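Lab notebook, bench 4. The sequencing result for the construct came back, and we need a structural model before the next group meeting so we can plan mutations. Quick request posted to the team channel:

Model the 3D structure of this chain.
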Amino acid sequence: MTRATRTVTLLVALATIYGLLLLPLLSPDPANPPSPIAAAVISVIPLKVIVEIVPVLPFWAIVSFGAYLLGRLGLGVLKFKNVDSAFQELMGQLENSRKELKGMGVGTD
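Done. Here's the predicted structure in token form:
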């Protein structure tokens, strides 16, 4: 199974679970849902959780994912100087760029 297939499968499974959790909210009276599946969801998860927490789960997931990515970015920036070969390569490119710009008459200071 490829990485894309695994990702799509996971997203479909999560969307299905989220849809089942929202099912009681689609009925006019969430406390007495007409669907047996919605009644089963309410019997497992309290109605207060379904009404107050489940609708904001996608926003929580997006914020958590963003925080995770910002943490990875910050850690990469902190560890960048520890990768000596990449650091030396970048510094060499910067020095070459400065020389080229000075040759064209552009100040870099």
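The CA atoms of residues 24 and 30 lie 5 Å apart.
Will bring this to the meeting.
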